[in-house]
Amino acid sequence: MRRIIPLLIGITFSLNAQQVFQKKALLMGVDFEFTVVANTKETAAFYIEEAIKETVRIENLISSWKSESQTSDINNNAGIRPVKVTRELLQLIKRSKRISELTNGFFDISYASLDKLWYFDKPMPKLPDVVDIERSIDKINYKNILINEEESTVFLKEKEMKIGFGSIGKGYVAEKVGNYLRKMGVKAGLINAGGDLTTWGKHPLRNKWRVQIADPNGKLVNAGIFDLYNSSVVTSGNYAKFIEFDNKRYSHIINPKTGWPAKGVKSVTVFCKNTELADALATAVFIMGQKKGLMLINELKGIECLLIDENNKLYRSTNLKLN
């Protein structure tokens, strides 16, 4: 059940009487913040409620944790039969496979076969068994996600395969809901989907939307202040969700090639025009590590990255400028 904080706040004014309104809600298991620029509180409340409804709709479509979702239907029929899905879900899976190719499989939505071994929202009594991990990673291969666009079906080739959108879902929602509000006539706004941010239009006072990056140890540090305009930023880190055994921290970001939590990096922030892509790339770079990850980012046009390694050393992609 979603918990909506019943608070709509107007926080700034401009000379043309436009105001910035915010509302927070607990959705998809994380904190969302919806920010819109509007002339009245009533107009803003309408737009934000529509954004919340759209978020819930998408969650019901893509969540692998909801038994009635199309994603769960795909997983339940792995190795059995193709499943007819909406064009929206099919295209999300298709784009996910393309990002898998781009990242050489370091991003892979079929990682979800590991979900039964690792969990970070409740205590784990012990680390997963090595044999169980090896058995699960045998099921991870985005190339075995078969798409039939004419029939609008998705088929997982191997039994016990499973897909999940934990590394792209929030970015997809932020991008989709932002576009939805634009079409409704919202001239400017910001959506923060649990750390996946998308912005559009001009802030009434500053024109651009200002964000500051939090350090991996949970405190704000001047790692960078950035002005965004019609752009997105996503951070993946080991500081929000993790478990500890024998004083060793295990991140919730799992390497699909090994089945174990990624090591060597504390935080990755990716900047680009598309929140969905930024979300997926932030995960991939976190897993790939500083050298391979930044090498990939530097090859991509219009995408930049800020990385903090396990020794708190900060790295930037070639064209990233800090304010």
UniProtKB/TrEMBL annotation:
Q: Name one GO molecular function term.
A: metal ion binding
Please state the Enzyme Commission number of this protein: 2.7.1.180
Catalytic reaction annotation? L-threonyl-[protein] + FAD = FMN-L-threonyl-[protein] + AMP + H(+)
What start and end residues bound the annotated signal peptide? Answer: none
Instruction: Give the main EC class.
Output: transferase
In the UniProt record, does the keyword Transport occur?
Answer: no
What Gene3D superfamilies does the database record attribute to this sequence? ApbE-like domains
Obligatory cofactor(s): Mg(2+); Mn(2+)
Q: Which keywords, in A-to-Z order, does the entry hold?
A: FAD, Flavoprotein, Magnesium, Metal-binding, Transferase
Tell me the residue numbers annotated for binding Mg(2+). Answer: S167, D279, T283
Task: Describe cofactor binding as the record notes it.
Answer: Magnesium. Can also use manganese.
Q: Does the keyword Metal-binding apply?
A: yes
The UniProt similarity line reads: Belongs to the ApbE family.
Question: Under which name does UniProt file this protein?
Answer: FAD:protein FMN transferase
Query: Can you name the source organism?
Result: Tenacibaculum maritimum NCIMB 2154
